[in-house]
Amino acid sequence: MAVTDPVRIGVVGYGLGGRAFHVPLVMSAAEATLVGVVTRDTGRRDQLAEDHPGVPALDDLRDLVDAGAEAVAISSATGSHSELTDRALDLGLHVVCDKPLALDATAAAASIARAESAGLLLTAFQNRRWDSDFLTVRRLLDEGALGEVYRFESRFERWAPGPPRAWWRSELPPEQGGGIRLDLVTHLLDQAMLLFGPVASVYAETATRRAASNAEDDVSVLVTHTNGVSSQLFANTMSGDISRRLRVLGTSGAYVVGGVDGQEDALRAGRTPAALGDAWGVEPESAWGHLARGGERTVVPTERGRWDVFYPAFARAVRGEGPLPVDAHEALGVLQVLDAIAVSAREHRVVALS
Q1: 94 — pLDDT class (breaks 50, 70, 90)
Q2: CA–CA separation, 240 vs 184, rounded Å?
Q3: Domains assigned to the chain
Q4: Are 199 and 226 in contact (CB under 8 A)?
Q5: Is the pTM of this model over 0.85?
Q6: What was the pLDDT predicted at 161?
């Protein structure tokens, strides 16, 4: 059910995240109204004017407040997330912060406490909770189709041997949030923990494979959940084989799917939920995965991807009509494991979590 009074939202940043994800998703939500985009970059202001004539480009968060914003989506470099989140909260704005909430769990916990003290909402944009393949795994687990699951293998791998690209964040040094630990691994961990719960221990290896990278672009993580499930997570921008995405092993069989959910590519190409309607997030049959039991294979229809539900859910939460799409404390839990991954990789040891 749509809210009767759309929430007035601004966006900070008009790089890839702001331009391809937040702005079109906000504009596709009947429950929200985009009041402006904060960017001082001349080229990005020109791009905003070309993409969305009439949407004002603003200088800072105060200008958003003056324009009547109630909430803001922060889509800036990871190293600036805490500063911008805290400033937005101090200005009385509810906040959607691109993942991760901060560079580390300590900073994230401080922002969460700040929001709670101010009576404001803070959530993380963990959009890949609504990937088509992930939603299919959740359905199969709910149906018990795999029996007792004991291993979850999940990958975001690319073949990009050339110069780093901004959306992999490896052009930034680690102290500014560069590297795929705080980028792609954040998604992998969030999905694994949503499926299988808290983490007991982690072992990780990280490396920088490309000479042009300033931070790690190859991460392998072994997560042991408190319920005994093992999650093996991989993120890599130098993988010549990009055919694998998910493999879930259980006592009654395995679910296997390759490729990557198509919503990101659709948004980058200018297609939006508003334009596609019910066709949004629908994967072609050629991309469907299968259940495997030895030599037996059964094709499994893939669930429709639903990144478009995030901002309607956020708007309802702002109006007091529903929960946040992502609980900030869950985002904090992910960061605690990301911190442990950094320690494990640096010290070459298994790190236990309380």
Answers
A1: very high
A2: 17
A3: 7-125+310-323 (3.40.50.720), 128-305 (3.30.360.10)
A4: yes
A5: yes
A6: 80
